[in-house]
Design brief:
Oligomer: single chain
Function: Catalyzes the oxidation of glucose 6-phosphate to 6-phosphogluconolactone.
Number of strands: 15
Helix content: 25-40%
Radius of gyration: 24 Å
CATH class of the largest domain: Alpha Beta
Family: Belongs to the glucose-6-phosphate dehydrogenase family.
Shape: globular
CATH topology of the largest domain: Dihydrodipicolinate Reductase, domain 2
Number of domains: 2
Binding site for NADP(+): 17-24, 51, 148
Binding site for substrate: 178, 182, 216, 235, 331
Number of helices: 14
EC number: 1.1.1.49
Length: 484
């Protein structure tokens, strides 16, 4: 099997915040890998724009060091690194003033696709959009890429949508969620809608419940200041987890195009019931002798911000009536592991003795770190000891099934940036989708703030608070083990 690399049209990509951490770690190394793969046409350019006072040659040196340090696949050893660096330019710019804007407008004056990546603080999104429009860079071939957080509540998300809409059309705005760029996440749609085997069973008649887990083994680290203002609900549940739920629960779109897919995702969010207070657990990790606890990492000894959330949600429509969705996400858990598990119901009648045990089919989509799909099936245990049943996995690790080269997937940012250049918004959130997600999330956060009840403390390296285990135990179910 040979994957095809299809070059994109020539483009100018301007990275606002081009000297920042995200640009160094993800955006620039990702663009370099796309260049090495032959996906960038000869006259495509990458323009860094930031407050730092440097020229283009100094910026190329900066990018060389970033690629060497943060490119895990090539380690900067692509033979074309010098050639890639010639595509780079730099403009010193003031997002809130006039410095650099005339130079940027002149530099990007062409018939090529123009994309502007807002890798900056959210408070600068509006001013950047305004100045791009003012200086004639918001025409029909221009696109803006907006990083999260897209607001911190419904009110701020609406205000930001309004500001961006004053300068750009909705089809020019790309609200990026890197989780949607993961190969396995995209495979959710292929699994569901490309296989007759699963779609007839993908409903409340056959599915007992669904678990979505995004677990991290690290703490907040250097992001303590930001994270303490956001928390797990805003940082993960409102966007990443919501998107995974939508892809699992959505109806088949009429066509595989951006608005058809996003229309169906929007219907899922609107069908979500409010979460009852007893169906949600929030926690905060404690420290050990070797690792700081959350409050010390966040440098806030009185912090009541959650680093863990588990909840039970219901999608009130015909497909999913009475089928619970259990979602959990947290930091400093046992392993770094993300998966979606579709747990099917028991057979309506078992012909086997009770000694055979209780067995269920489980379809597991593994998102990280080992991407793949696993289907648990029940078979007879080998041997002459009678009819004893065991569960075994039909396991498709992408690395094994496709070979190491084919399974060496592009990073999510690589894929998503190329989609921006193509003008494909399928994997990006629409404005109304963002607002509806906040409308569902806001009452939960407001209740926490009104109650002023601190999150439950949980041990580093655990599966989270014991109350999260009880969330499922009282329903006669249990969380799947967190393991890589």
């Amino acid at each position: 099997m040979v994957s095809r690399v299809i070059p994109v049209d020539p483009f100018d990509l301007v990275i606002f915040g081009g000297t920042g951490d995200l640009a160094r770690r993800k955006i620039l190394p990702g663009l370099f890998r796309r260049f090495c793969a032959g996906q960038m046409e000869e006259d495509s350019r990458i323009i860094g724009a930031a407050r730092s006072d440097m020229d283009s040659e100094e910026y190329r040196h900066f990018v060389r060091e970033a690629i060497t340090e943060f490119d895990p696949k090539t380690k900067g050893e692509c033979a074309h690194l010098d050639e890639f660096l010639t595509r780079l330019h730099y403009v010193t710019i003031d997002a809130l003033g006039e410095t650099g804007w005339a130079e940027l407008a002149e530099l990007t004056r062409s018939d090529k696709v123009r994309a502007f990546y807002f890798s900056v603080a959210p408070r600068l999104f509006g001013p950047l959009a305004e100045r791009l429009h003012l200086h004639g860079m918001a025409d029909g071939e221009s696109r803006i890429v907006v990083e999260k957080p897209f607001g911190r509540d419904l009110e701020s998300a609406r205000a930001l949508n309004k500001v961006l809409a004053e300068h750009f059309e909705e089809n020019q705005i790309y609200r990026i969620d890197h989780y949607l760029g993961k190969e396995t996440v995209q495979n959710l749609m292929a699994i569901r809608f490309g296989n007759m085997l699963f779609e007839p069973l993908w409903n409340s008649q056959y599915v007992d419940h669904i678990q979505i887990t995004v677990a991290e083994s690290v703490g907040v680290g250097g992001r303590g200041g930001y994270y303490d203002r956001a928390g797990a609900m805003r940082d993960m549940m409102q966007n990443h987890m919501m998107q995974l739920l939508c892809l699992i629960a959505m109806e088949p779109p009429a066509k595989f195009n951006p608005d058809a897919v996003r229309d169906e995702k929007l219907k899922v969010i609107r069908a979500l019931d409010p979460v009852r207070e007893e169906d949600i657990v929030r926690g905060q990790y404690e420290g050990t002798e070797d690792l700081l606890g959350y409050r010390r990492e966040a440098e806030n000894p009185e912090s009541t911000t959650e680093s863990f959330v588990a909840l039970k949600a219901h999608v009130s429509n015909w497909r999913w009536a009475n089928t619970p969705f259990y979602l959990r996400t947290g930091k400093r858990l046992r392993e770094r592991a993300s998966e979606i598990a579709i747990v099917f119901k028991d057979a309506p009648h078992s012909i086997f003795d009770e000694d055979a045990g209780r067995h269920r089919n489980i379809l597991t989509i593994k998102l990280q770190p080992n991407e793949g799909i696993e289907l648990g099936v029940t078979i007879k245990e080998p041997g002459p000891g009678g009819m004893r049943l065991i569960d075994v996995p039909l396991d498709m690790s992408f690395a094994e099934a496709l070979g190491p080269e084919e399974a060496d997937f592009p990073d999510a940012y690589e894929r998503l940036i190329m989609d921006v250049i193509r003008g494909n918004q399928t994997l990006f959130m629409r404005g109304d989708e963002v607002e509806e997600a906040w409308a569902w999330t806001d009452p939960i956060i407001a209740q926490w703030e009104d109650d002023a009840v601190p999150p439950i403390r949980y041990a580093t390296g655990s599966s989270g608070p014991d109350d999260a285990l009880m969330l499922m135990h009282r329903d006669g179910r249990r969380w799947r083990e967190i393991k890589a």
